[in-house]
Amino acid sequence: MSVRRLAPDHVQPDSFAFTAANENWIDGQIAKYPTGRQASAVIPLLWKAQEQAGGWVPRAAIEEVGRKLGMSYMRVLEIATFYTMFNLAPAGEFFVQLCGTTPCALRGAEAIKAVCQDVIGPQSTVTADGKFSWLEVECLGACCNAPMVQINQDYYEDLTPENFTALLDNLRHGRPVRIGPQVERSGSEPLGGGETLKDASLFDGSMTQSKWQERISRQREEAAQAAAAKAEAAASAEKTGTEPVSRPAPSAPSQPTSAAQDTPAAGGGAVKGSVPLETGAGAARMPETKREV
Ligand code: FES
After folding, report:
1. Claim to verify: residue 126 and residue 164 sit in the same structural domain
2. What's the domain range around 115?
3. Among 12, 16, 21, 227, which residue's CB has the most CB atoms within a 10 Å radius?
4. Is residue 55 located within the same domain as residue 98?
5. For ligand 1, what atom is nearest to the CA of residue 146?
6. How far is CA 241 from the centre of its chain?
7. Do residues 58 and 28 touch, judged by C-beta distance below 8 A?
């Protein structure tokens, strides 16, 4: 990272005013915040100023943003100088932000930086044809595809000195370029393709679906059997002139209750003051409780 200062006076415009369309847009941004909190819109306003000024934020634009939001110029300047997303000097048509943080450095960012220096020139200067400028920045959040750069709004990843040089050349000559990984890799998958979750049934819903289908067809079958049994009982009752006897539907075996589990029979131990439950024929008798005197 380098010290971030405003561009020298000779490149600074005398004044800056937002266009009518941008004024409308700004009103909408400021309206998002409660009264007295308009300063919260400082980043969107600086971003819009940079867009309007052609890719950088002149001093006059910083002052205009301060006036719009009722902030001191110094406070707006602090924000504009803190975030590398704001250029403080004119940038090239293709503004290259090179990530130099540890994961990218370990994967060869220094070699990419050397390409920037060779092809574009010193950091924060614009090439003679106005096409390029570059800046080293901190992590851009694409470490798994390191090393990488951001050029204008797009990421270019998995760079090597060769593919990065070719990329810059294609941009310079207006040829189509591939955004994202510059090697045969989809997103941030491993090289050679994904290695996990390959069984489609794990995520296409078929496992769940088949269980639902099984359960629903079983329920339908049981309902049909019950209806047939009912009809048979009704027909037989009509023949004999008696009331149809409804057969109880089969029910699931009852679960042992916690009370039963708590009994001595279940737990195998005697409860103080109680007579143990009998098993077998006597099991239906209620246990007698001895009172301690
Ligand atoms: S370290 Fe380079 S993108 Fe995170």
Report:
1. yes
2. 94-181
3. 16
4. no
5. 2
6. 71
7. no
As a whole number, mean pLDDT of residues 221-226 equals 96
CA 157/CA 137 separation, integer angstroms: 15
Distance 111 CA to ligand 1 centre (A): 15
Residue 277's φ and ψ, nearest 5 degrees, are -65, 145
* Domain match, 43 and 64 both: yes
Candidate from 84, 99, 135 with most ligand 1 atoms within 8 A of CB, to mutate: 99
| Domain match, 37 and 59 both | yes
pLDDT of res. 245: 58
Structure-derived torsion over alpha carbons of residues 125, 127, 128, 131, reported in degrees to the nearest 10: -130
CA 39 to chain centre: 28
In a domain, 240, yes or no: no
Say which CATH number the domain at 149 has.
3.40.30.10
pLDDT single digits (tens) 98-147? 999 999 999 999 999 999 999 999 998 999 999 999 999 999 999 999 99
Q: What is the percentage of the chain residues whose pLDDT exceeds 70? A: 81
CA distance readout (Å), 212 to 206, 223, 250, 252:
10, 17, 22, 19
